[in-house]
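Practice record 12: protein with manganese (II) ion.
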Amino acid sequence: MNKKHFHSLEKIFKESPTINLSKEDKIVIFSDVHIGNGGRNDDFLQNSDIFSTILLENYLEKNYTLVLNGDIEELYKFSFKSIINRWSKIYDIFEIFRSQGKLFKIVGNHDYKIYYSRSHPINKKLHRAIKFDYDGNLIFVFHGHQTAGLFEQYSTFIGYLLKYLAAPLGMKNGTIPLDSEKKFKTEIRSYEFSKKKKIISILGHTHRPLFESLSKKDDLTIKIERLIKKYPKAENPQKRKIEKLLKKYKLELENISDNDNRFFLRSGLYDEKILVPCLFNSGSVIGKRGSTAIEIKDGKISLVYWFDVKRSQRYLDYKGVKVKQLKNTDYFKATLKEQSLDYVFTRINLLA
Ligand SMILES: [Mn+2]
Protein backbone atom coordinates (compact mmCIF):
# COMPACT_ATOMS: atom_id res chain seq x y z
CA MET A 1 0.00 0.00 0.00
CA ASN A 2 1.06 3.49 -0.92
CA LYS A 3 2.69 5.23 2.06
CA LYS A 4 0.90 8.49 1.45
CA HIS A 5 -2.53 6.87 1.73
CA PHE A 6 -1.50 4.88 4.76
CA HIS A 7 -0.27 7.98 6.56
CA SER A 8 -3.35 10.01 5.74
CA LEU A 9 -5.55 7.26 7.20
CA GLU A 10 -3.20 6.80 10.15
CA LYS A 11 -3.48 10.50 10.97
CA ILE A 12 -7.28 10.47 10.87
CA PHE A 13 -7.29 7.25 12.87
CA LYS A 14 -5.08 8.72 15.62
CA GLU A 15 -6.91 12.02 15.83
CA SER A 16 -10.43 10.62 15.93
CA PRO A 17 -12.24 10.20 19.25
CA THR A 18 -12.79 6.77 20.79
CA ILE A 19 -16.20 5.83 22.10
CA ASN A 20 -16.69 2.81 24.31
CA LEU A 21 -19.20 0.35 23.01
CA SER A 22 -20.96 -2.15 25.25
CA LYS A 23 -23.21 -5.04 24.30
CA GLU A 24 -26.21 -2.93 25.36
CA ASP A 25 -25.44 -0.09 22.93
CA LYS A 26 -27.28 0.13 19.63
CA ILE A 27 -25.70 1.90 16.69
CA VAL A 28 -26.99 2.59 13.19
CA ILE A 29 -24.68 3.91 10.51
CA PHE A 30 -25.98 5.66 7.40
CA SER A 31 -23.88 7.33 4.73
CA ASP A 32 -24.37 9.08 1.41
CA VAL A 33 -27.73 10.73 1.93
CA HIS A 34 -26.89 13.51 -0.57
CA ILE A 35 -29.70 15.75 0.68
CA GLY A 36 -30.56 18.48 -1.83
CA ASN A 37 -33.14 21.24 -2.22
CA GLY A 38 -36.14 19.08 -3.08
CA GLY A 39 -36.00 19.89 -6.79
CA ARG A 40 -35.75 17.40 -9.59
CA ASN A 41 -31.97 17.12 -9.20
CA ASP A 42 -32.32 16.15 -5.56
CA ASP A 43 -31.35 12.47 -5.35
CA PHE A 44 -32.61 12.30 -1.79
CA LEU A 45 -36.21 13.15 -2.68
CA GLN A 46 -37.25 9.62 -3.63
CA ASN A 47 -36.19 8.02 -0.35
CA SER A 48 -36.83 11.00 1.92
CA ASP A 49 -40.01 9.61 3.42
CA ILE A 50 -38.64 6.15 4.11
CA PHE A 51 -35.53 7.73 5.66
CA SER A 52 -37.37 10.11 8.00
CA THR A 53 -39.90 7.41 8.95
CA ILE A 54 -37.31 4.79 9.90
CA LEU A 55 -35.24 7.33 11.85
CA LEU A 56 -38.22 8.49 13.86
CA GLU A 57 -40.36 5.37 14.19
CA ASN A 58 -37.63 2.79 14.41
CA TYR A 59 -34.18 4.02 15.38
CA LEU A 60 -35.15 6.88 17.70
CA GLU A 61 -37.87 4.86 19.36
CA LYS A 62 -35.54 1.92 19.88
CA ASN A 63 -32.86 4.08 21.43
CA TYR A 64 -30.20 3.82 18.73
CA THR A 65 -27.21 6.12 18.38
CA LEU A 66 -27.17 7.60 14.88
CA VAL A 67 -23.91 7.81 12.93
CA LEU A 68 -24.06 9.89 9.76
CA ASN A 69 -20.96 8.80 7.89
CA GLY A 70 -20.37 11.49 5.28
CA ASP A 71 -21.96 12.94 2.15
CA ILE A 72 -25.03 13.80 4.17
CA GLU A 73 -25.55 17.10 2.34
CA GLU A 74 -25.04 17.46 -1.40
CA LEU A 75 -23.09 20.70 -1.23
CA TYR A 76 -21.59 20.28 -4.71
CA LYS A 77 -24.99 21.10 -6.13
CA PHE A 78 -26.90 22.98 -3.43
CA SER A 79 -26.35 25.51 -0.65
CA PHE A 80 -26.75 24.40 2.94
CA LYS A 81 -29.41 27.06 3.35
CA SER A 82 -31.57 25.67 0.54
CA ILE A 83 -31.11 22.16 1.96
CA ILE A 84 -32.26 22.97 5.50
CA ASN A 85 -35.09 25.12 4.20
CA ARG A 86 -36.50 22.21 2.24
CA TRP A 87 -35.73 19.39 4.66
CA SER A 88 -36.23 20.99 8.07
CA LYS A 89 -38.19 17.89 9.10
CA ILE A 90 -35.09 15.72 8.65
CA TYR A 91 -32.92 18.23 10.50
CA ASP A 92 -35.42 18.30 13.36
CA ILE A 93 -35.02 14.54 13.66
CA PHE A 94 -31.20 14.79 13.56
CA GLU A 95 -31.52 17.42 16.27
CA ILE A 96 -33.50 15.09 18.56
CA PHE A 97 -30.71 12.49 18.32
CA ARG A 98 -28.11 15.21 18.92
CA SER A 99 -29.88 16.69 21.95
CA GLN A 100 -29.91 13.23 23.52
CA GLY A 101 -26.16 12.84 22.90
CA LYS A 102 -26.88 10.18 20.28
CA LEU A 103 -25.55 11.70 17.09
CA PHE A 104 -22.16 11.51 15.41
CA LYS A 105 -21.82 13.47 12.19
CA ILE A 106 -18.83 12.62 10.02
CA VAL A 107 -17.75 14.67 7.02
CA GLY A 108 -17.43 13.27 3.49
CA ASN A 109 -16.28 14.84 0.24
CA HIS A 110 -19.66 16.17 -0.88
CA ASP A 111 -20.27 17.92 2.42
CA TYR A 112 -16.81 18.97 3.58
CA LYS A 113 -17.82 22.61 3.08
CA ILE A 114 -20.24 22.07 5.97
CA TYR A 115 -17.49 23.44 8.19
CA TYR A 116 -18.64 26.85 6.98
CA SER A 117 -22.16 26.20 8.30
CA ARG A 118 -21.19 25.70 11.92
CA SER A 119 -23.88 28.05 13.17
CA HIS A 120 -26.46 25.32 12.68
CA PRO A 121 -26.66 23.19 15.85
CA ILE A 122 -26.30 19.99 13.86
CA ASN A 123 -22.86 21.09 12.66
CA LYS A 124 -21.46 22.27 15.98
CA LYS A 125 -19.56 19.05 16.34
CA LEU A 126 -18.25 17.47 13.17
CA HIS A 127 -15.89 14.53 12.95
CA ARG A 128 -13.51 13.32 10.29
CA ALA A 129 -13.90 9.84 11.78
CA ILE A 130 -14.80 8.08 15.01
CA LYS A 131 -13.65 4.85 16.65
CA PHE A 132 -15.73 2.49 18.71
CA ASP A 133 -13.87 0.43 21.27
CA TYR A 134 -15.57 -2.91 21.57
CA ASP A 135 -13.90 -4.93 24.30
CA GLY A 136 -10.42 -3.82 23.24
CA ASN A 137 -11.13 -4.17 19.51
CA LEU A 138 -11.62 -1.10 17.35
CA ILE A 139 -14.28 -0.22 14.80
CA PHE A 140 -13.09 2.71 12.70
CA VAL A 141 -15.87 4.68 10.99
CA PHE A 142 -14.90 7.14 8.24
CA HIS A 143 -16.36 8.19 4.91
CA GLY A 144 -13.67 6.67 2.71
CA HIS A 145 -12.75 9.41 0.23
CA GLN A 146 -9.50 9.97 2.11
CA THR A 147 -7.81 7.20 0.18
CA ALA A 148 -8.73 8.66 -3.20
CA GLY A 149 -6.63 11.06 -5.22
CA LEU A 150 -6.80 14.71 -4.20
CA PHE A 151 -8.72 15.52 -7.36
CA GLU A 152 -11.55 13.21 -6.47
CA GLN A 153 -11.53 14.33 -2.84
CA TYR A 154 -11.89 18.06 -3.02
CA SER A 155 -12.07 19.21 -6.58
CA THR A 156 -14.03 22.38 -7.01
CA PHE A 157 -13.85 21.56 -10.69
CA ILE A 158 -16.06 18.54 -10.10
CA GLY A 159 -18.33 20.83 -8.10
CA TYR A 160 -18.65 23.26 -10.98
CA LEU A 161 -19.11 20.46 -13.43
CA LEU A 162 -22.02 19.14 -11.42
CA LYS A 163 -23.59 22.50 -10.90
CA TYR A 164 -23.38 23.77 -14.44
CA LEU A 165 -23.31 20.62 -16.52
CA ALA A 166 -24.82 17.69 -14.72
CA ALA A 167 -27.64 19.52 -12.97
CA PRO A 168 -29.13 21.17 -16.08
CA LEU A 169 -28.87 17.86 -17.90
CA GLY A 170 -30.84 16.27 -15.09
CA MET A 171 -28.05 13.87 -14.20
CA LYS A 172 -29.03 11.77 -11.25
CA ASN A 173 -27.29 10.14 -8.36
CA GLY A 174 -25.41 12.87 -6.64
CA THR A 175 -22.36 12.92 -8.73
CA ILE A 176 -20.68 11.53 -11.76
CA PRO A 177 -20.71 7.98 -10.45
CA LEU A 178 -17.45 6.62 -9.17
CA ASP A 179 -16.26 4.15 -11.73
CA SER A 180 -15.39 0.68 -10.57
CA GLU A 181 -11.67 1.44 -10.74
CA LYS A 182 -12.06 4.22 -8.19
CA LYS A 183 -14.39 2.14 -6.04
CA PHE A 184 -11.86 -0.63 -6.05
CA LYS A 185 -8.99 1.67 -5.07
CA THR A 186 -10.98 3.10 -2.18
CA GLU A 187 -11.85 -0.39 -1.02
CA ILE A 188 -8.44 -1.98 -1.40
CA ARG A 189 -6.58 0.83 0.39
CA SER A 190 -9.01 0.81 3.30
CA TYR A 191 -8.83 -2.97 3.36
CA GLU A 192 -5.04 -2.97 3.58
CA PHE A 193 -5.14 -0.39 6.35
CA SER A 194 -7.72 -2.29 8.41
CA LYS A 195 -5.92 -5.56 7.97
CA LYS A 196 -2.64 -4.08 9.12
CA LYS A 197 -4.24 -2.45 12.16
CA LYS A 198 -6.41 -5.51 12.89
CA ILE A 199 -9.53 -3.39 13.09
CA ILE A 200 -12.94 -3.21 11.44
CA SER A 201 -13.37 -0.27 9.07
CA ILE A 202 -16.82 0.95 8.10
CA LEU A 203 -16.96 3.20 5.04
CA GLY A 204 -19.44 4.88 2.75
CA HIS A 205 -18.49 6.87 -0.36
CA THR A 206 -18.66 4.14 -3.03
CA HIS A 207 -22.40 3.51 -2.49
CA ARG A 208 -21.55 -0.17 -2.64
CA PRO A 209 -22.47 -2.15 0.47
CA LEU A 210 -19.74 -4.44 1.79
CA PHE A 211 -19.96 -6.99 4.56
CA GLU A 212 -16.91 -8.83 5.87
CA SER A 213 -14.95 -7.46 2.89
CA LEU A 214 -17.43 -8.93 0.42
CA SER A 215 -19.72 -7.18 -2.04
CA LYS A 216 -23.08 -8.58 -3.08
CA LYS A 217 -21.48 -9.90 -6.22
CA ASP A 218 -18.77 -11.72 -4.28
CA ASP A 219 -21.39 -13.10 -1.94
CA LEU A 220 -23.51 -14.44 -4.81
CA THR A 221 -20.45 -15.97 -6.47
CA ILE A 222 -19.56 -17.78 -3.27
CA LYS A 223 -23.15 -18.98 -2.82
CA ILE A 224 -23.19 -20.34 -6.37
CA GLU A 225 -19.87 -22.14 -5.92
CA ARG A 226 -21.10 -23.76 -2.70
CA LEU A 227 -24.31 -24.98 -4.34
CA ILE A 228 -22.39 -26.47 -7.26
CA LYS A 229 -20.16 -28.38 -4.85
CA LYS A 230 -23.24 -29.73 -3.06
CA TYR A 231 -25.01 -30.72 -6.26
CA PRO A 232 -23.31 -34.03 -7.23
CA LYS A 233 -23.92 -35.56 -3.80
CA ALA A 234 -27.51 -34.35 -3.49
CA GLU A 235 -30.63 -36.55 -3.78
CA ASN A 236 -33.07 -35.82 -6.60
CA PRO A 237 -35.61 -33.55 -4.82
CA GLN A 238 -32.73 -31.57 -3.35
CA LYS A 239 -31.14 -31.34 -6.78
CA ARG A 240 -34.29 -29.58 -8.08
CA LYS A 241 -34.08 -27.13 -5.18
CA ILE A 242 -30.43 -26.40 -5.90
CA GLU A 243 -31.20 -25.88 -9.58
CA LYS A 244 -33.92 -23.38 -8.69
CA LEU A 245 -31.64 -21.47 -6.34
CA LEU A 246 -28.78 -21.48 -8.85
CA LYS A 247 -31.07 -20.00 -11.47
CA LYS A 248 -32.17 -17.27 -9.09
CA TYR A 249 -28.65 -16.34 -7.95
CA LYS A 250 -27.37 -16.39 -11.53
CA LEU A 251 -30.09 -13.99 -12.60
CA GLU A 252 -29.30 -11.68 -9.70
CA LEU A 253 -25.63 -11.78 -10.57
CA GLU A 254 -26.42 -10.83 -14.15
CA ASN A 255 -28.60 -7.96 -12.99
CA ILE A 256 -25.92 -6.22 -10.94
CA SER A 257 -25.07 -3.03 -12.78
CA ASP A 258 -22.22 -3.01 -15.27
CA ASN A 259 -20.60 -0.23 -13.32
CA ASP A 260 -19.91 -2.81 -10.67
CA ASN A 261 -18.46 -5.46 -12.90
CA ARG A 262 -14.91 -5.13 -11.65
CA PHE A 263 -15.79 -6.14 -8.19
CA PHE A 264 -13.79 -6.25 -5.06
CA LEU A 265 -12.65 -9.82 -4.66
CA ARG A 266 -12.02 -10.73 -8.23
CA SER A 267 -10.15 -7.55 -9.02
CA GLY A 268 -7.23 -8.29 -6.79
CA LEU A 269 -8.02 -9.96 -3.57
CA TYR A 270 -8.48 -13.32 -5.21
CA ASP A 271 -4.69 -13.33 -5.19
CA GLU A 272 -4.95 -13.34 -1.46
CA LYS A 273 -5.37 -16.82 -0.12
CA ILE A 274 -7.33 -15.66 2.90
CA LEU A 275 -9.77 -12.79 2.85
CA VAL A 276 -9.80 -10.90 6.15
CA PRO A 277 -13.35 -9.79 7.06
CA CYS A 278 -12.24 -6.32 8.15
CA LEU A 279 -14.05 -4.08 5.64
CA PHE A 280 -17.68 -2.99 5.76
CA ASN A 281 -19.61 -0.34 3.84
CA SER A 282 -23.07 0.97 4.65
CA GLY A 283 -23.94 1.56 0.97
CA SER A 284 -26.22 4.59 0.58
CA VAL A 285 -29.56 6.03 1.62
CA ILE A 286 -30.43 6.96 -1.97
CA GLY A 287 -30.60 3.52 -3.58
CA LYS A 288 -33.05 2.97 -6.41
CA ARG A 289 -35.51 0.97 -4.34
CA GLY A 290 -34.42 1.67 -0.79
CA SER A 291 -31.70 2.48 1.71
CA THR A 292 -28.95 0.36 3.23
CA ALA A 293 -27.33 0.75 6.64
CA ILE A 294 -25.00 -1.00 9.05
CA GLU A 295 -26.38 -1.81 12.48
CA ILE A 296 -24.48 -2.83 15.59
CA LYS A 297 -26.42 -4.28 18.51
CA ASP A 298 -26.40 -7.20 20.93
CA GLY A 299 -22.76 -7.85 20.03
CA LYS A 300 -23.68 -8.33 16.39
CA ILE A 301 -23.02 -6.36 13.22
CA SER A 302 -25.50 -6.48 10.36
CA LEU A 303 -26.15 -5.07 6.91
CA VAL A 304 -29.77 -4.04 6.59
CA TYR A 305 -31.86 -2.91 3.66
CA TRP A 306 -34.96 -0.76 4.09
CA PHE A 307 -37.37 -0.86 1.20
CA ASP A 308 -40.81 0.32 0.16
CA VAL A 309 -42.94 -2.71 -0.62
CA LYS A 310 -44.72 -0.74 -3.34
CA ARG A 311 -41.40 -0.39 -5.17
CA SER A 312 -39.74 -3.74 -4.49
CA GLN A 313 -40.80 -7.17 -3.29
CA ARG A 314 -37.50 -8.87 -3.98
CA TYR A 315 -36.64 -9.60 -0.35
CA LEU A 316 -40.14 -10.36 0.92
CA ASP A 317 -39.56 -14.06 0.57
CA TYR A 318 -35.85 -14.62 0.18
CA LYS A 319 -33.92 -17.59 1.49
CA GLY A 320 -31.80 -16.70 4.49
CA VAL A 321 -33.02 -13.09 4.75
CA LYS A 322 -35.06 -11.97 7.77
CA VAL A 323 -37.71 -9.39 6.88
CA LYS A 324 -39.70 -7.21 9.25
CA GLN A 325 -42.45 -4.70 8.57
CA LEU A 326 -42.21 -1.32 10.30
CA LYS A 327 -45.49 -0.95 12.20
CA ASN A 328 -48.30 -0.66 9.66
CA THR A 329 -46.24 1.22 7.08
CA ASP A 330 -45.22 0.12 3.57
CA TYR A 331 -41.65 -0.02 4.81
CA PHE A 332 -39.80 -3.24 5.51
CA LYS A 333 -36.37 -4.04 6.84
CA ALA A 334 -34.43 -6.95 5.38
CA THR A 335 -31.41 -8.15 7.33
CA LEU A 336 -29.15 -9.13 4.45
CA LYS A 337 -26.17 -10.16 6.55
CA GLU A 338 -25.50 -10.64 10.24
CA GLN A 339 -22.46 -11.74 12.20
CA SER A 340 -21.26 -11.75 15.79
CA LEU A 341 -18.56 -9.13 16.42
CA ASP A 342 -16.57 -11.54 18.56
CA TYR A 343 -16.43 -13.93 15.63
CA VAL A 344 -15.42 -11.21 13.15
CA PHE A 345 -12.65 -9.94 15.44
CA THR A 346 -11.42 -13.45 16.16
CA ARG A 347 -11.01 -14.01 12.45
CA ILE A 348 -9.36 -10.62 11.92
CA ASN A 349 -6.92 -11.20 14.77
CA LEU A 350 -6.05 -14.72 13.69
CA LEU A 351 -6.00 -14.24 9.91
CA ALA A 352 -4.56 -10.76 9.39
MN1 LIG B 1 -18.44 10.43 -0.99
